[in-house]
Prior knowledge:
By secondary structure, the protein is of the alpha/beta class. The chain has helices at about 10-20, 25-30, 45-65, 75-85, 95-105, 145-155, 205-210, 215-220, 245-255, 260-270, and strands at about 5, 40-45, 65-70, 90-95, 110-115, 120-125, 140, 160-165, 175-180, 185-190, 200-205, 225, 235-240, 275. A seven-stranded mixed sheet has the order 1-3-2-4-13-5-14, sandwiched between helices. Strands 10-7-11-6-12 form a five-stranded mixed sheet. Strands 8-9 form a two-stranded antiparallel ribbon. This is Lipoprotein.
Amino acid sequence: MRNTIKITTAVLAAGALTLGLTACGSEEESSGSDASGPLTVAASPVPHAEILNFVKDNLAEKAGLDLEVKEVTDYVTPNTSTEDGSVDANYFQTQAYLDDFNKKNGTHIVPAGDVHLEPLGLYSEKVKEADELKSGATIAIPNDTINEGRALQLLAANKIITIKEGVGFEATPSDITGNPKKLKFKELEAAQTPRALADVDAAVVNGNYAIGADLKPAEDALVLEAAEGNPHANFLAVKEGNEGDPRVKKLAELLTSDEVKKFIDDKYAGSVVAAF
């Protein structure tokens, strides 16, 4: 039976406090790594937890892996709970996001294997084509550093705006150098962008949140990130030092199996693309 557990920041914070009070100082205890127990992975509900649950239900037992999946709906808790040992690993993010998170929060999370890509897309309930956006239209974009930069790069790649050269995925609205339609930008937490579609003219939405909102990126996006050559693969991640955990290695192997690739291809029909 599927054992998916919804968790909140408060619950994880309590777990972190308990860990802090009971840890005895060893590296293994402080990192939360216990290779003899189940491997607990925090993941965004869609598609990450769905992919993990496919592994759990179809591949893990035969491979001798005891896997627990904890669904988390924000982009902060998975890393902080992996850092403090509340969970063993997480699966939700890109390298650029992780690098920025580690730098800003003093965490020590590292990748343990690419799994899939979720193209970022521009969506609207008001227009059918990007060039139909009116002068002064408001576009919601994610407010975290890397996803905001990706959103602006997406708009620039489709000639909706222009931005400074060299800013890469750290671009912000202040880096916009050309805005012929005088677009306004509403910066929101990434999870809120699909919910804002009724109140704005368009929104740039991360693939997992788009799918969770019953949007079909391959069909519904006005413009969509190209999959080929895209550096934003989502991966399994652990606290530095736990890369050699045999459970982590086994899960990474299962997540890049032919069975998982077929599951991704069949279920997401191009809205999520295997990165292996």
